[in-house]
Amino acid sequence: MDLPNGQPRHLGITLPIALSYPTPREIEVTDLLVQELIAQGTFESEEESRRREVVLGKLDKLVKEVVYKISREKEKLPEPDAREAGGKIFTFGSYRLGVHGAGTDIDTLCVVPRHVSRENFFLVMHETLSKLGDVNELTSVTDAYVPVIKMKFQGIAIDLVFARLNLPQVPDDLELRENSLLKSLDETCIRSINGSRVTDEILRLVPSIPAFRTSLRCIKLWAK
């Protein structure tokens, strides 16, 4: 895409290395690179991928149940209001970027409405998780820079952080892109929510997500 003055439009702050299309040889070595990434175990199996999706679905349902319980028992909201309070799970980090490998954890953000306090959420969520046979290695770190609940849910490592939005309800179609959602939040909630917001912004800004993911997998493998 060109600018009005005829100059090509570039994304980012540096110029691209090249503007030409890849040669057959470059496509070939890229395919070889992906094969090596697979051989090095940087991709997970389809079975593990499906298991992660199932676990996230169960966790999202569990969050809604915890929000309902807090709404009714601790905030004394009427039944209809408690049922509509909602709650939603977002992912961020390597899982959301699509560059996670086998056995890696899932960075997860739980977003709840304004009447659910951090103290009540961590207390009730920890109690609820501790009663589930699918959950082990459960730990709550409430005094961390970003408070987190760590666990293994059906063998999948989960790091769950918390953010309370200034909303009466958290619907399933909520998106976190709008800056207005940050108004009236404390610093801890802003730190918690920024992980998901930044990850999504990266995916919106990169020109080619497949090329970005391949490059990032290479960098992660090299760094190890």
UniProtKB/TrEMBL annotation:
GO BP field: mRNA processing
Cofactor(s) for this UniProt protein: Mg(2+); Mn(2+)
Pfam families, per the entry: PAP_NTPase
Top-level taxon in the UniProt lineage: Eukaryota
EC numbers: 2.7.7.19
InterPro entries cross-referenced by the UniProt entry: NT_sf, PolA_pol_NTPase
Transmembrane segments: none
GO terms assigned for molecular function: ATP binding; metal ion binding; poly(A) RNA polymerase activity
Classification via SUPFAM superfamilies: Nucleotidyltransferase
Keywords assigned by UniProt, alphabetized: ATP-binding, Magnesium, Metal-binding, mRNA processing, Nucleotide-binding, Nucleus, Transferase
Keyword Oxidoreductase applies: no
Compartments, as annotated in UniProt: Nucleus
Gene Ontology terms: cellular component: nucleus
Domain Poly(A) polymerase nucleotidyltransferase: 12-206
Family: Belongs to the poly(A) polymerase family.
Protein name: polynucleotide adenylyltransferase
